[in-house]
Design a protein that fits this description.
Layout (H helix, E strand, L loop, with lengths): L25 H17 L4 H4 L3 E8 L5 E3 L1 H12 L6 E14 L2 E12 L3 H4 L10 E10 L1 H5 L5 E11 L2
Parallel strand pairs: 1-6
Antiparallel strand pairs: 1-2, 3-4, 4-5, 5-6
Length: 167
């Protein structure tokens, strides 16, 4: 097993730090994060609309436990899924909680409801059955600092993990 050694702490790069003169607006930030979660649900089968909602180095662990890192890998995984019977599986996200860890980072907790419209042989097959019809979804979302410097309030998904809840 490879040991992970954290990098030494670095002084923040002022060019990558948001404008500290920006007036905090918790209600606006909460609305933006809620909109991001809703957009991710709405575009779940549209890679062209969904992928820009993620940071370039996003880490996603899906319902089946598959981990992909980076938008190119996520795009390939989506392409594979949408070309398979998994295209007939959709989800609905029920937002539970948003916790801001700072002005530019939040943890989102949600319940993911899974709707499997595949044919019964796939839906109920021992090797193709989904692990559950419900999952706990956790997002780490971050403010896009480049957009913030341009005066836009854009949030992106940096990490997503869905853990099946045994029914």
């Amino acid at each position: 097993m490879q040991e992970h050694r954290p990098e030494p702490a670095r002084t923040p790069d002022p060019a990558r730090t948001p404008d500290t003169a920006r007036t905090p607006d918790p209600a606006r930030d909460l609305a933006a994060v809620r909109r991001l979660v809703a957009d991710a649900e709405r575009h779940q089968k549209d890679p062209a609309a969904l992928l820009p909602l993620y940071t370039p180095d996003v880490s996603v662990v899906n319902f089946g436990g598959r981990r992909v890192v980076g938008v190119p890998a996520l795009a390939r995984a989506m392409e594979e899924a949408l070309a398979s019977p998994l295209a007939q599986v959709s989800t609905r996200t029920e937002l539970q909680d948003v916790r801001f860890l700072g002005p530019d980072v939040a943890i989102v907790a949600a319940i993911k409801h899974v709707y499997d419209e595949r044919e019964p042989a796939l839906r109920d097959g021992p090797d193709t059955r989904l692990p559950s019809r419900t999952g706990r979804l956790t997002y780490v979302v971050v403010r896009d600092l480049d957009a913030a410097r341009a005066g836009e309030d854009v949030w992106r998904i940096a990490s997503a993990q869905t853990t099946p809840v045994r029914n």
